[in-house]
Amino acid sequence: MPASHRLRMIFEITHRTTYKYTQPASEAYLELRLGPPHEPGLEILWHKISCSPEAPMTSYEDYFGNRVHFYSMTLRHQKLEITNHLIAKTAPRPLPHAALNLTVAEARQIFGSRLPDIFDYIQPTPVVPVGGIAKAWGTKWFRGHAVLGEALERLNSTIHNHFKYVPGSTDNQTPLAEVWKNKRGVCQDFAHIMLSVLRTCGIPSRYVCGYIDPAPPQKTPDAKGFVGAAYTHAWVEVQVPGGNWVGLDPTNNCWCHQQHIPIARGRDFREAAPVAGTFKASGTQKLSAKVLVRRLSPKQATQRLETLAALKTPLPTPSQKPDSPPTL
Amino acid sequence: MRKLGRSALRRLDENLEAVMREMGVTFALKDNRGRGRKPWECDMLPQIFTDQEWTLLERALQQRLRAFELFLQDVYGPRNILHAGVLPVQVVLGSPFYQRPACHLPRTDNAFLHLTGMAVTRTSEGSFAVRHHYFGSASGISYMMQNRRALARVIPRLFEGYNPRSIADAPTEIVELLRSRARTAEDIVVLLSPGEGSPAYSEHSFLGRRMGIPVVQGQDLVVHGDRLFLKTINGLEPVAAVYSRVADPWLDPLVFRPDSLIGVPGLVQCIRQGTVRMINSIGSQLADDRALLAFSHRIIRFYLNESPLLPSVPTYWLGDLDQRQEVIENLENFCIRPLYGERILTPPPGTPLTPSRKKALLRELHRHSTLYVAQPIAGESATLCFPRGVPTPRLQDHIVFALRKGELSYEAFPGALTRVSTESSSYVASELGGGSKDTWVLSPAQDPLCPSELARFNETRPPASHITSRVADAFYWTGRYLERASSLATMIATIEALELEELNATEQKLCQPLWNQMLPPLENPTPDSRRSISSTEGRYRLALDPTESGSVIHSVRRALDNTDSIQESLSVEAVAVASELGTLFNRIRYQERLTEERRQAVSRRVCERARSLIAEFFGMAEATMVRDGGWRFCLAGQALERAIITANALCTITSAIVNLPDTRRVEHALEIRLSAFLRLLASRDAYRRIYQMRVEPGHAVEMLWNHPAVPRSVRCCLSECLRLLDGCFSADSPALKKTSSEIASLLSTLGMTNWREQFDTPFTGHNPAAKSLVENSKAFLSGLLRLHNVFTDGFLNHQIHFRQQAAQLQNSPSQN
Fold first, then answer.
1. How far apart (Å, rounded) are the C-alpha atoms in residues B369 and A74?
2. B103 → chain A, closest CA residue
3. pTM to 2 decimal places
4. Of B378, B672, B666, which Cα lies nearest the Cα of B503?
5. Are A120 and B100 in contact (CB < 8 Å)?
6. ipTM of the modeled complex
7. Which chain A residue is nearest to residue B816, measuring alpha carbons?
8. Which of B49, B383, B599, B663 has the fewest CB atoms within 10 Å around its CB?
9. Which of residues 21-50 of A touch B (CB under 8 A)?
10. What is the DSSP track for B590-650?
11. What is the pLDDT of residues B482-540, one digit of tens each?
């Protein structure tokens, strides 16, 4: 077997989002950014989005290239459940070394000449402001003569060490300033902090929502696994000169590789939200999400795919962890 | 005019104002919203454009529209102008009006701009300069037309010897443009308005009437299967085209601001799928960004390779450091405005800028510099106006409007909305109030039209079938809440009177447990509710505590929230009574500490007053309202609520009687209870008239269930519901079929039950007959409560329709 084949990994992912209402809703509309994107290094062997109650869906490609499914439910219902079921094969993603070896000054010059293309990715958004502390950090790591790849790596590990990963310490409403102040957060906050520094320095970058395999990359006894697998994970992609995007995961202090499976991209978590929607109901609703990522051997994968093809409605239940935090 | 005296001129001005008021032309300013809208002001001296001036204006507008259409297609596509470095990238891609979702959206006829406007001002040298683009959202067409109407009616002599071109057909042309977007005759066109809170709502309803299309709000529309529908009481009507008066960020909470309550979730998906078209296309409002005005000459040159026919008013974009510096150094010479909208940050010229305000202003300009522009104050020429008949110089500007006629081709409406400044300000902006002038473009044609011809307007109302579910829903709940408030007020006032005047303490004790169970049932009862009508304190709270769910004040306020949302559909007289009812409850404050007597007095007075005002509301509405589907829903709500309250009370009394030991059922005490019971339901009088005897349980219960002539009886209320609905729907409406059959089955159950006889048989111990009587009553009550769901599912939220659709879908072969 050729070496590259041995490096490939296969994952089965089940991602379930549930809305429960206190009073039945008469209308519900959702946009599902559950990808997965078609791109090199990611091969989709099986993908099915199921909704309950069931309704026909249409899809489109949004501004950031995400495949978006539009779901509408006009029958009264008490509960809404979306399950994303995915079997994907990933390959190693070689880093664009030539671009990463440029100095920050050289990179900036190249970006400057392509402003209309990269503008979106260097602007602040309502949840990712620029300037402030981010500026101090930026000037420290992104001096003109610094090598781009090294600067990125240093920023990544600084964020990883400076902030504490505390599940449940923040939610979707927590402003970034508070994360800076309290020095703790979840993967979404780690990604936003990194975006804020990068954009302050004029380096185009975007937010990625996806799944991560928690298994440690090396099979040594003291190897640490990845965090962020119980829910959707978040990381950052940086555009390097030449137009390629490279992924960095500040929560796990690494470059993104085969164990990261992207599903949606945007300028911040709002634009890359896997499930977002609006409801018409007199009560309130409660949202919960669960993700299960399972590594499959090629043999298991073949069997699994055969079973699925025969069943046509495959829905394994993700493990229930009652005390887990709502967001990651 | 010179020949007329001061008083004659003054009279003319007053007449103009009166005509505007009568035509209902208003413009609500920020501090003047709500019920007291200001009538639109039109000056008696018209503005006249010479042929030469008009030709220039029209050509300049066409030129800019061509350039900006190309600009929009470019920046939402290849972005050539940005790659060429002609414009700062920030001005376009950093604009809050640049809508990223518009990049891949299909556009109506492959164009952004369809109905457009442009404001021009006159410089001190007398030439024109463009002050603002209203390309994306043109507002003011109706005011332009109303000025002409008012002037032609009040001073027809003015038109003698002139021959202004007619603008009466403007809405017809707009609606033709929209109709050409519909694929079938059944597909309708709607005007989407933010609702009655919008300052220009009078324009929306005028245009809607003139175009013959329904004026709707976001909640009137629903997306189902990637298609847009108008929810009406007759069912769902497919919508093919939307004339939107809602700004892009509020259109669809799924795509734009998630907090928008005035949009339609899924609307953008319909546009994406090509099932709905909209004017103007989403994204157009970028063209109105004032920062672009500063670069409009570059945009015209880049796309058309032409020189601008009209200059823009000098506009400084404060996102540019040099420009900001220049403006800040000469702050008193500039008017600072946001990129869009009518707001002005600087005080009117002549008014000094206080140091604290200046500091705040400078801080804002530094912090959000890219969001502001500055235009110089000096350099506009004055015109003559006659406010209250006194000749006065005022500043002015003109908004001209145009409609797309084909590929990069536009036609201007031969007229304009001329705005003039107020007394206090020497800057023209709708935000500052001020007046307007009728604006004439003279026709080269030989035979002048007579003024009456100019004022000819054949207003068409949208057909009654367009009564939307939102409106019907608000009417329905108005009926239900008012009836609930009225019934409860009657109970409270009656008990106060009974306790004060008639019943002794023992008798009161006898009645109290019963009374509490007679309270109107609530939709979402709180399990720990303290609702009690048996103590003075409890009654006071039930009357006046706004936090007590189901109290009189609470129900009245819920009802008034509903009437507020449909003011346009109510008669002025009915609105006046509703507002009096609101005032009653705003004047009296709920107080925790009050003496027993005071509480009693206040509860009784408020309840009696509320009851008579509610009766007055229904009476006044009945006498003044158009008897359309909407109003019928109000009455149907009232009838259903009344039936529910009566049935609930009947359940209570029935189980109380059958649980009494047999011997006591004929005693005096029972009679007292029954008499109090009937009085609480305001039906003792009816009983006396019909039976002319002392109160007997069988008769009383029979009457309230089944007597066709007693207004509180369940039969009477249900028949009324049926009559109201039957009259306004076609027989094949599934909602009507379902509702009628439900009501008919309830009525036949009523008819088949002999309530009186059941009471005559003696109840001893656990008599099965007694048990079945109580159970029958309760079953009937839940049947009534279910009727509410049948009703709302059929006419208001269309669940019946959606369920049918889903069933059809399931029966069709599934995809995999």
1. 44
2. A63
3. 0.86
4. B672
5. yes
6. 0.89
7. A312
8. B663
9. 23, 26-27, 29-31
10. P-S---HHHHHHHHHHHHHHHHHHHHHHHHHHHHHS--SHHHHHHHHHHHHHHHHHHHHHH
11. 999 999 999 999 988 887 777 777 777 777 777 888 888 887 776 666 678 888 888 99
